[in-house]
């Protein structure tokens, strides 16, 4: 975790009064929040709270109906998704998004190849060697180097999610957005994924969506709590844990 004073000095992402309507339904209402650079910020809340909708606004998948999104001090509201990727924002989804027939290494290489310029077509062999080295480095970082020759479909669910994160890292993002990275995982896979997130956060900012509060309390620098599309609470894990409104929302839920 980073020092609290450092965090307050630099903000990588900010939303000002963002809202999202689906027809007449208000999925998200007037959310203003700041995401400190170099920190892990988790967005939590019960089912239907608006977490995924907020995630989609932060990653540029949706434009907000109202309000603005700023990345590194620049207004990026409504910019197309690929512009977010170019600026240094990468994301991974709840649903695993790997190429099942390809090997683990080939999957990562595809992520890297997306960054290849036309010039590289003239020196394919050198480029392939370079890509393979970079892919192996990324595979090691997400704990999959030993599985580099396996086809992705034979990997366990947790390993597929790690692979997807490896693919997201190929663009060397400054901000990594993760939507429920432990969804559907066993307790052991969940622990491995949490360790990986902490490791990755030492090199870049991480924003995480999660509906199980307990899971993120130990690893987050800051927590935002959404409920019925509103920002119910925000603060450090201990502040949020003590918050009466948060306790009420989570009370009686089996898994938190
Ligand atoms: N495309 C859409 N069209 C209409 N309503 C939507 C759409 N997407 C989300 N909603 C509604 O907006 C509200 C917030 O949904 P959202 O998926 O953001 O919640 P969530 O906190 O991520 O929930 P979960 O933990 O179940 O994934 C829900 O009531 C949902 O039904």
From TrEMBL:
<keyword id="KW-0813">Transport</keyword>
<dbReference type="GO" id="GO:0016887">
    <property type="term" value="F:ATP hydrolysis activity"/>
</dbReference>
<dbReference type="Pfam" id="PF00005">
    <property type="entry name" value="ABC_tran"/>
</dbReference>
<comment type="similarity">
    <text>Belongs to the ABC transporter superfamily.</text>
</comment>
<keyword id="KW-0067">ATP-binding</keyword>
<dbReference type="InterPro" id="IPR017871">
    <property type="entry name" value="ABC_transporter-like_CS"/>
</dbReference>
<comment type="function">
    <text>Involved in beta-(1--&gt;2)glucan export. Transmembrane domains (TMD) form a pore in the inner membrane and the ATP-binding domain (NBD) is responsible for energy generation.</text>
</comment>
<protein>
    <submittedName>
        <fullName>Amino acid/amide ABC transporter ATP-binding protein 1, HAAT family</fullName>
    </submittedName>
</protein>
<dbReference type="InterPro" id="IPR027417">
    <property type="entry name" value="P-loop_NTPase"/>
</dbReference>
<dbReference type="InterPro" id="IPR003593">
    <property type="entry name" value="AAA+_ATPase"/>
</dbReference>
<dbReference type="InterPro" id="IPR051120">
    <property type="entry name" value="ABC_AA/LPS_Transport"/>
</dbReference>
<dbReference type="InterPro" id="IPR032823">
    <property type="entry name" value="BCA_ABC_TP_C"/>
</dbReference>
<keyword id="KW-0547">Nucleotide-binding</keyword>
<dbReference type="GO" id="GO:0005524">
    <property type="term" value="F:ATP binding"/>
</dbReference>
<dbReference type="GO" id="GO:0005886">
    <property type="term" value="C:plasma membrane"/>
</dbReference>
<dbReference type="Pfam" id="PF12399">
    <property type="entry name" value="BCA_ABC_TP_C"/>
</dbReference>
<dbReference type="InterPro" id="IPR003439">
    <property type="entry name" value="ABC_transporter-like_ATP-bd"/>
</dbReference>
<feature type="domain" description="ABC transporter">
    <location>
        <begin position="13"/>
        <end position="253"/>
    </location>
</feature>
């Amino acid at each position: 975790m980073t020092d609290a004073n450092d965090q307050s000095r630099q903000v990588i992402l900010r939303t000002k009064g963002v809202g999202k309507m689906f027809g007449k339904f208000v999925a998200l209402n007037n959310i203003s929040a700041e995401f400190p650079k170099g920190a892990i910020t988790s967005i939590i809340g019960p089912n239907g709270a608006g977490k995924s909708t907020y995630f989609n606004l932060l990653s540029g998948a949706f434009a907000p109906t109202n309000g603005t999104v700023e990345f590194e001090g620049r207004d990026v509201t409504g910019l197309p998704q690929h512009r977010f990727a170019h600026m240094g924002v990468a994301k991974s989804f709840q649903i695993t998004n790997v190429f099942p027939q390809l090997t683990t290494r080939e999957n990562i290489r595809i992520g890297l190849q997306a960054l290849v310029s036309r010039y590289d077509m003239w020196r394919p062999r050198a480029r392939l060697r370079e890509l393979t080295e970079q892919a192996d480095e990324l595979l090691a970082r997400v704990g999959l180097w030993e599985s580099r020759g396996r086809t992705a479909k034979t990997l366990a669910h947790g390993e597929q999610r790690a692979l997807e994160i490896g693919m997201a890292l190929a663009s060397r993002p400054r901000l990594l957005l993760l939507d429920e990275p432990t969804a559907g995982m066993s307790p052991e896979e969940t622990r491995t994924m949490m360790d990986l997130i902490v490791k990755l956060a030492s090199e870049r900012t991480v924003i995480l969506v999660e509906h199980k509060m307990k899971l993120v309390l130990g690893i987050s620098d800051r927590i935002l709590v959404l409920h019925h599309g509103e920002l119910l609470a925000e603060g450090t894990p201990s502040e949020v844990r003590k918050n009466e409104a948060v306790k009420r929302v989570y009370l009686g839920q089996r898994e938190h």
